[in-house]
Amino acid sequence: MASGTTNTHAHTGHHQRRVLFLTGGWVAMVSAGRVMVVNLFSRAKVVLPTKQGDYSIDPSKISKIIFSEEPTSETCILAAITHGCMVALCGVSSAKGWTMKACGMGMLKDIAFYHGELYVLQLDRPLVRLLKFGISGGANEVALVTTIQAVVIHSLPYLLWEEDDDVDVHTVYIFEMGNKLTMAVKTGEYFFRLFELVIDVNYRRWEEMTSLHDYALFLGPTCSMAVEVCAEGRGGVQRNHIYYSNERYGHVPSHKRYLTKMADGRIVYYDDDEIVCYDRKVIISQGFYGERGVQAAMWLVPPHV
Fold it and tell me: Which side of the chain, N or C, has fewer Cβ within a 10 Å radius?
């Protein structure tokens, strides 16, 4: 396993290149006004259309892209969070391109495919909503949203046991961990709360977790994922640890440690371990920070680890 940081803005000629998402060796890259999907190990490449009928997508306004399965599959669907808090869908094998869907009030904070279905996390203070999108369309067909279902709605103050309705939440993430849909809530500079989705006959709710058990968690604006880690750790990564990239530009902690220098000379740091305690349990977190102008860290996790 490898983890690292990269400058997600690079220039090739007069065109700006942005890396949006990376996992299992696959990266979605915006370059010259196009979205390309490239595998860093096999160098396989898929170029996606930017238009479909009256629908269009501005690649520069995409904040995150996820894959439903391996992009080499004809049935793979890409889902993206884009401008105006819209969800955009595109079938990799479809020449008909992107479709767009709004989902009401509130900010779209994260998206994830879980058991082949698309879930969207929406923050509309003081509420956090988990929405499930029904999608139609297979190989060579247009991907369309057919239904939007509210899976669970929680009040953030109630969920976090906070008395203040304007609770300080920096960001939220969703991802799969141990075959469970899981949410991470960052409530302060270094403080994370973790919740797993529990679905029973009579209720659906987020239940708080106090341990990652055999997993290490990587969090960032372009990629969030949980990886199972052996007891002795691997490549410096340890189980029951959270590794996160700071999403606030230019914020560097005073007790930082030097990590690496970017090609343009700007420096990336990592923070000392922070002990996160809740209900007498401990989860260690470690943050990665860049000087102003350096994009948030991006995690590189090889396939089949």
Answer: C
HSE at residue 102, side-chain half, CA atoms within 13 A, is: 6
pLDDT of residue 175: 93
What pLDDT digit, counting tens, does each position of 181-211 carry?
999 988 766 678 899 999 888 788 999 988 8
The Cα 233–Cα 214 span in angstroms is 10
Structure tokens at 212: 């990652």
- The residue written with tokens 């020449």 in the block is 95
In the DSSP assignment, the letter for residue 237 is B
173 touches 184 (CB < 8 A):
yes
Model-level pTM? 0.82
Nearest by Cα to 65 from 89, 96, 40:
89
End-to-end CA distance of the chain: 6
- Strand 241-245 vs strand 281-290: parallel, antiparallel, or unpaired? parallel
C-alpha–C-alpha distance, residues 29 and 25, integer Å: 13
Q: Give every CB contact of residue 232 below 8 A, 6+ residues apart in sequence.
A: none
Q: Specify which residues 133 forms β-bridges with.
A: 118, 148
Q: Cβ-count burial of 111 within 10 angstroms (0-12 exposed, 13-18 middle, 19+ buried)?
A: buried
Q: List phi, psi (to 5°) of 131.
A: -110, 140
Note the pLDDT tens digit of each residue in 81-107. 887 678 888 887 766 677 888 877 788
Spans in the chain with pLDDT lower than 50: 1-16, 52-54
Strands 241-245 and 215-219: parallel
